[in-house]
């Protein structure tokens, strides 16, 4: 069945597009504040950009290298997958345009207006023209394309203005980029929030810019390029430093082949054909959109609103809480030494873990700190504490992954800072990304060597810890600590085939042990039970094993945020499998594996999804959750999410999703978990003002 269509699987790319549709549908939910709904449109847009850059780009590469290869879930060739993608994207973009227009009309009632140049009032038009003359025109770089002026390289995801020009009988193409330094929109003076797209301003002045020519057509456009770069694609000198290799690769990203063209309005067939010929695109890769091609500006709109309007249009503010299990001011080294701690982001703060690192940096008994890093915030206390530890004479080892997609430059910069402070820097492996989230603190005192280990599902990123739902497990268990010590030794000597007692470690060992744990439940038949919370499910071996479990009568429950190639409820194949997806205020990101019930239950948290890349091409870690309170906390999280009938959708046997409903009252798991975190927080840790908005306080008192 390697390349045949299974009745219980679907293509991963089409599954991802359905996930992004669920993101877009959040923008239609009237229970979501208006400005937050517009943010979901922006997220949908940036998600789709990355999808074309990475997934569509890699399929184009595969089509050139192996055009007859077939997807092992759908049996489709690369060309068939691309055609299906291009067809599926078009109605999604039309839906996006319609939703965006409706939201902008609704926001106008709050004096927030997205305008075209034609809609400007006379004083505003005067202001815009003056702004163009003083701020825009001096930094524009327009050019024509003819025999003496070659067609320029159009950078990836940079908005441009294009024009068909005529000089007598001679036709030319005029083009200019919208300078990034200008920002995506221009806010107009006045008490209201009124703005116009910078590209629209430049478009309105095309006739003036190309005054020597007749402008026959003009359009805003944007090219999306393949951005799927890997070090294996390039030949480097043997003694090249890996950091230098990554710098070279980043320069190639903007030069890879185009995979999509967005046009701000319909153009003539002649004009479209010109674009297609110059960019080597097919017509199916050209999309006309009425919405802005870049929508990052949406996240800054709230800062321009009065407090009252902001409260009406945005989520009630929420501050991640201090966990109730940690006394205020208590030493984290002592707290974890006497009992495990589980942190649940963003409901609880990352601060206890950061405090642990800060204490470790200055504690005389701490001899070493070792950590893997995949993504970091632009500003990072974690780096500050690691540097302090190294400067205090601790042995600090940082395994930093320079190939964290779109964060490469940030990681290069941080690696240099850490190295300058005296940390030992490791870059991982040529063919395997290090995606694990594990930190080991080793102490030596009068009683000997002891460990504190932290294993998480998300990155050590202080910003996303307030936006993504993740788990971080802190334990002084000696067996887990010993495994973590062995893990870091193996990473330092390039050994990917180490053996571990407690931890599950990919690429060698994790998948086999997961399959064995599923087999344990299969042996129980109808008494077997499996639960998985994941971001994606694509690995065909695990998909087939779950189908085997279903056929044996095992109850399988799954909460999968994004891609799920496994179709549930297919008669005779996956009857006992249920799949749900939750898209809400926070990005669901935690990975939980649960095997069995009661005393036989085994529970893990992990950095790994059920994807082939995670199981076979990345270094990942899953850790057993051993303490009763931590397990109970995760069970409550699972119960809240499985009872969600507000933001959850159930996957159908055909791969579509249906919003859950039923019950006497609406249940939103993220609201429940926010409420529980507030109730559990030490009273003195709750902020006196500004942390929780009045609406959310009222919600939590219910």
Q: What does this molecule look like?
A:
With 702 residues, the chain is α/β, with parallel strands linked by helices. The protein has 20 helices and 27 strands. The strands form 4 sheets. Strands 14, 18, 19, 20, 21, 23, 24, 25, 26 and 27 form a 10-stranded mixed β-sheet that branches. Strand 19, helix 16 (540-551) and strand 20 form a beta-alpha-beta unit. Helix 1 packs antiparallel against helix 2, helix 11 (351-362) runs parallel beside helix 12 and helix 15 (510-522) packs parallel to helix 16 (540-551). It is globular, with a radius of gyration of 27 Å. 44% of the residues are buried. The model is unreliable at 231-240 and 685-702 (pLDDT under 50).
Secondary structure topology:
Blueprint: H1 12-25, H2 34-65, H3 78-107, E1 112-115, H4 122-136, E2 143-145, E3 159-167, E4 170-177, E5 185-187, E6 193-197, H5 198-204, H6 206-209, E7 214-225, H7 242-253, E8 258-263, H8 269-279, E9 286-288, H9 307-313, H10 332-338, E10 341-345, H11 351-362, E11 366-373, H12 381-391, E12 395-400, H13 408-420, E13 424-426, E14 433-434, E15 438-445, E16 448-456, E17 468-475, H14 478-492, E18 504-506, H15 510-522, E19 529-534, H16 540-551, E20 555-560, E21 577-582, E22 587-588, E23 591-595, E24 602-606, H17 612-616, E25 618-624, H18 628-642, E26 648-651, E27 657-659, H19 669-680, H20 694-701
Parallel strand pairs: 1-6, 8-9, 11-12, 12-13, 14-25, 17-22, 19-20, 20-21
Antiparallel strand pairs: 2-4, 3-4, 3-7, 5-6, 7-8, 10-17, 11-15, 15-16, 16-17, 18-25, 19-23, 21-26, 23-24, 24-25, 26-27
């Amino acid at each position: 069945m390697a390349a045949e269509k299974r009745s219980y699987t679907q293509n991963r790319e089409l599954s991802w597009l359905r996930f992004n549709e669920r993101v877009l549908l959040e923008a239609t939910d009237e229970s979501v504040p208006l400005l937050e709904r517009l943010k979901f449109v922006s997220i949908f847009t940036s998600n789709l950009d990355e999808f074309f850059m990475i997934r569509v780009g890699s399929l184009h590469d595969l089509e050139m290298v192996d055009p007859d290869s077939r997807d092992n879930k759908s049996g489709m060739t690369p060309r068939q997958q691309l055609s299906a993608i291009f067809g599926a994207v078009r109605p999604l973009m039309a839906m996006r345009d319609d939703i965006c227009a409706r939201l902008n009309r609704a926001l106008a009632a709050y004096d927030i207006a997205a305008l075209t140049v034609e809609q400007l009032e006379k004083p505003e038009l005067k202001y815009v023209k003056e702004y163009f003359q003083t701020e825009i025109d001096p930094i524009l770089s327009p050019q024509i394309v003819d025999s003496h002026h070659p067609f320029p390289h159009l950078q990836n995801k940079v908005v441009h203005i294009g024009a068909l020009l005529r000089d007598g009988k001679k036709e030319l193409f005029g083009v200019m980029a919208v300078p990034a330094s200008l920002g995506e929109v221009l806010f107009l003076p006045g008490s209201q929030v009124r703005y116009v797209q910078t590209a629209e301003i430049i478009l309105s002045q095309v006739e003036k810019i190309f005054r020597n020519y007749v402008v026959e057509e003009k359009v805003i456009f944007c090219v999306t390029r393949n951005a799927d770069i890997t070090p294996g694609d390039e030949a480097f000198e043997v003694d090249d430093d890996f950091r230098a290799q990554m710098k070279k690769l980043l320069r190639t990203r903007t030069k890879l082949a185009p995979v999509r063209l967005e046009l701000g309005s319909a153009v003539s067939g002649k004009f479209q054909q010109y674009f297609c010929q110059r960019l080597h695109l097919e017509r199916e890769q050209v999309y006309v959109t009425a919405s802005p091609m870049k929508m990052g500006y949406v996240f800054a709109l709230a800062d321009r609103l009065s407090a009252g309007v902001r409260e009406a249009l945005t989520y009630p503010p929420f501050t991640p809480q201090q966990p109730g299990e940690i006394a205020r001011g208590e030493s984290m080294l002592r707290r974890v030494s006497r009992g495990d701690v589980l942190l649940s982001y963003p409901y609880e703060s990352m601060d206890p873990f950061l405090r642990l690192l800060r204490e470790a940096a200055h504690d005389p008994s701490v001899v070493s700190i070792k950590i893997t890093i995949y993504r970091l915030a632009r500003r990072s206390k974690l780096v500050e504490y690691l540097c302090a530890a190294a400067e205090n004479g601790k042995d600090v080892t940082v395994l930093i992954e320079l190939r964290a997609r779109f964060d490469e430059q940030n990681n290069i910069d941080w690696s240099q800072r850490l190295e300058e402070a005296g940390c030992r820097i490791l870059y991982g492996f040529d063919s395997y990304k290090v995606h694990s989230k594990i930190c080991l603190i080793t102490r030596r005192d009068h009683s000997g060597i002891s460990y504190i280990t932290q294993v998480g599902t998300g990155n050590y990123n202080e910003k996303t810890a307030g936006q993504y739902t993740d788990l971080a497990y802190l334990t002084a268990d000696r067996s887990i600590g010993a495994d973590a010590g062995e893990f870091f030794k193996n990473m330092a000597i390039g050994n990917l085939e180490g053996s571990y007692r407690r931890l599950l470690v990919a690429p060698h060992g994790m998948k086999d042990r997961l399959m064995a744990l599923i087999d344990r439940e299969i042996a129980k038949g109808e008494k077997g039970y499996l639960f998985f919370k994941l971001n994606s499910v694509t690995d065909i071996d695990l998909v087939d094993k779950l189908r085997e479990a279903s056929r044996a009568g095992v109850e399988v429950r799954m909460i999968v945020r994004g891609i799920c190639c496994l179709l549930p409820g297919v008669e005779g194949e996956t009857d006992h499998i249920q799949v749900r997806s939750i898209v809400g205020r926070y990005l669901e990101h935690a990975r939980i594996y649960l095997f069995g019930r009661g005393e036989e239950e085994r529970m893990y948290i992990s950095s790994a999804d059920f994807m082939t890349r995670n199981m076979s091409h990345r270094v990942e870690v899953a850790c057993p959750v051993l303490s009763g309170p931590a397990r109970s906390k995760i069970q409550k999280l699972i119960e809240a999410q499985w009872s969600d009938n507000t933001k959850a959708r159930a996957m159908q046997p055909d791969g579509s999703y249906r919003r859950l409903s039923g019950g006497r009252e609406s249940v939103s798991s993220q609201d429940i978990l926010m409420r529980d975190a507030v109730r559990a927080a030490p009273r003195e840790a709750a902020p006196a003002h500004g942390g929780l908005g009045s609406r959310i306080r009222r919600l939590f008192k219910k």
